[in-house]
Amino acid sequence: MPIIEFDENRCDCNPGETLLECLDRYNCPPPSSCQSGLCHTCLMRCVKGTPPESAQNGLKDSLVKQGYFLPCVCYPEGDMKVVMPDDAAAPHTSAKLIEKTILTPAIARLRFAVDEDFSYIPGQYTNIFKSDEVARTYSIASVPVLGDYIEFHIEKISGGIVSEWIFNTLKEGDELQISEALGECFYQAGEEENNLLMIATGSGFAPIYGIVRDALNQGHTGEIHVYQGAGMAEKLYLVDEMKILAEKHENLFYHPCLSRDATEDFESGRANELALTEHADLKNWTVYLCGHPEMVKATQRKAFLAGASMKDIHSDPFEFAKT
Ligand SMILES: Cc1cc2nc3c(=O)[nH]c(=O)nc-3n(C[C@H](O)[C@H](O)[C@H](O)COP(=O)(O)OP(=O)(O)OC[C@H]3O[C@@H](n4cnc5c(N)ncnc54)[C@H](O)[C@@H]3O)c2cc1C
Ligand code: FES
Questions:
Q1: N or C end of the chain: which has fewer CB within 10 A?
Q2: Where does ligand 2 bind, in terms of residues with CB under 6 Å?
Q3: Of 144, 179, 214, which residue sits at a domain end?
Q4: Comparing C-alpha atoms, which of 64, 182, 196, 194 is closest to residue 119?
């Protein structure tokens, strides 16, 4: 059984247990969020022993060479001594809340001022820190050239540690820490003439709102079909803004969809099912999928079966933290 040394602790890592789960069992876990290797919140460094390669997927080469790894996807193969990361490996930026708007009872829009050297591509995500130990991952909905702020859309999860704090406590003027921007679900250079299919559920619309405006701003000429879905009308937001955007761009087709409520204003059904019924042949299309993890995974497979190449399917499953 591998032994994990961390601070003063010597922890036995059980078979089938991740290093994060092991440290959690010994009450000394690093901060974590997605617990699936996406957000990098849990980043640690191995100073004795070797982390498995699979625990270093998605890290920059310079970090891999220094022994950094992601404990939430690390199944130790031998003894390891691990430490918390240096500040330089996991850079944080101060962000000041300059605007908080409750868009619907379930969705808030937050705009933060950040240092001008914070760089991102619309659709990437960052970690918002509630405290040194507690962080959650949120996608960036803004476009740098369209505004001097970074924007998030947060869905209120009942009993959620961070989303409820954002809704109920965080106020304009407050400052907090965010991580660097990560992720590869963004508008790709060279696809200006491709047809794009974008599907989002709930606050999964945040990255799509950034990506679609980035594409239009870069002069995209192919068709863009955006399917925004929710169960109830209270979770569909920025509908009027999207309708106005679609009126301005003849290659943009906007489909707000409700799966549970039926009203004349919205298409009736699940956004992913409607999208794939109306676009049954996705050969040479680029597909973007963001939101509920099950929707993203199921639609990824269906888009591939409809002819889209795996390299042209970009996705952000909003994996929940295991609390
Ligand atoms: C790459 C990525 C990007 C993301 N981007 C966004 C974004 O732009 N906007 C956004 O609102 N969220 C986003 N999320 C989700 C976000 O990181 C949090 O998981 C979410 O806000 C819940 O955190 P919480 O602390 O409020 O709830 P927690 O305290 O973590 O969870 C409380 C309980 O609710 C459950 N739960 C958590 N989320 C959901 C859910 N969606 N539906 C049902 N049950 C749930 C948990 O399993 C737990 O039992 C993203 C996640 C990832 C991985
Ligand atoms: S990468 Fe480990 S918690 Fe997200």
A1: C
A2: 32-35, 37-42, 70, 72
A3: 179
A4: 182
